[in-house]
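User: You have something folded?
Assistant:
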Amino acid sequence: MGFKDDVKNAVNWDVPGVAPTDTLRVAMQIMTDHRLSALVVRRDGEVAGVVTDMDIVTSIGGQEDLDGKQVADIMTGCQLITGKSAKIPCVQLASGHSVKLALDVMKQGGIRNLVVAGEDDKPVAVVSALDLFRRLLEPDRS
C-alpha cells in the first residue's frame, strides 16, 4: 500500500457514532472497543461534531465522574460539507482522496483525526493518523 491509496481503505466503516447526549463513559467505551481516537457525533442523523480522546482526557482532569458529563459538553461542533451550506464545516475528506492528502491535511491543520465522507456525502467515520500509518505499513497485496 502507498500514499496514493484511497483513504477509504484505512477507515473502519462499522464504527458507531455517539450522540451529543451520550456520556463520556459511553464515548470512552466505544473508543476502547473499536481502538479509536475519535468519534463522529450525530444529532438526528446529521453530523453535529467530533469528540476525540484528547477532548476526554482534557475534560476529565481531576474529575472522576464519567457519567456526569455529556459528549455535547466537550465535543468540537461542526457540520459535514455537502451540497448544503455548513456554518461550521468539519475538517473532512471524501473517501476517494489519497492517504497522502489526508496526512497533508492533518499536518496543515495540526490535527490527528479527519471525518471521512462516504458515497453520497454520508458521514461514515473518522480516520486517525494511526489508521493511515497502519495502511501505509500493510504489505502490497497486488
Remarks:
- The chain is about 25% helix and 20% strand.
